[in-house]
Automatic annotation (TrEMBL):
Keywords: ATP-binding, Kinase, Nucleotide-binding, Receptor, Transferase, Tyrosine-protein kinase. One of its GO terms (biological process) is cell surface receptor protein tyrosine kinase signaling pathway. One of its GO terms (molecular function) is transmembrane receptor protein tyrosine kinase activity. InterPro entries: Kinase-like_dom_sf, Prot_kinase_dom, RTK, Ser-Thr/Tyr_kinase_cat_dom, Tyr_kinase_AS, Tyr_kinase_cat_dom. It comes from the Eukaryota. Coiled coil: none annotated. This is Src-related kinase lacking C-terminal regulatory tyrosine and N-terminal myristylation sites. SMART domains: TyrKc. Residues 1-161 form the Protein kinase domain. Signal peptide: none annotated. The keyword Transport does not apply. Pfam families: PK_Tyr_Ser-Thr.
Length: 179
């Protein structure tokens, strides 16, 4: 079973991959656990670029009939078809939820997609998963800021997660040396 330390390590790699896309003005539009490839030594790669687009002026506006994964999509993208790096950041928060909940479906239960949008626009956010470190849940909540400009960049997310990963590594090495 993967520990929180493993999941932090993996999420740091995913945020680094998304920072790469951010630098190239590419919006993924379908960031979710199902679209992450995991290889040997837990090496993670962002995959499935079928919905990805190059953005101009920081936003890509999709046509109204575009199918989108509502449970992973920021409200401004789902309601107004306005996708940006910041809507990908929202999706990254949901991906973190999937990872830390060990694979739970976001907004599980009988919620229809329309109901998910209604509760999100009224301020509801997913609860902290069991065994999820508080600092990771804070990152999720930062990713789910109602105002897109208040969401962190992928570079900031990578820096935070990389720092956490290094701290976990140092602590685990200390524990081993005390044995």
């Amino acid at each position: 079973m993967l520990s929180s330390a493993h999941l932090i390590y993996m999420s740091g790699q995913i945020s680094e991959g998304m920072a790469y896309l951010e630098d190239r003005n590419i919006v993924h539009r379908d960031l979710a656990a199902r679209n992450i490839l995991v290889g040997d030594d837990l090496v993670c790669k962002v995959a499935d670029f079928g919905l990805a687009r190059i953005i101009r002026d920081s936003v890509y506006t999709a046509s109204r009939n575009t199918k989108i994964p509502v449970r992973w999509t920021a409200p401004e993208a789902a309601l107004h078809q306005r996708f940006s790096v910041k809507s990908d950041v929202w999706s990254f928060g949901v991906l973190l939820y999937e990872m830390m909940s060990r694979g739970k479906m976001p907004y599980e239960g009988s919620f229809l997609n329309k109901e998910v949008m209604t509760i999100l626009t009224s301020g509801y956010r997913l609860a902290c998963p069991t065994r999820c470190p508080e600092n990771i849940y804070k990152i999720m909540m930062d990713c789910w800021a109602a105002e897109p400009s208040k969401r962190p960049s992928f570079h900031a997310l990578h820096s935070q997660l990389d720092d956490m990963d290094c701290n976990v590594l140092v602590l685990s090495q200390r524990k081993r040396s005390q044995i």
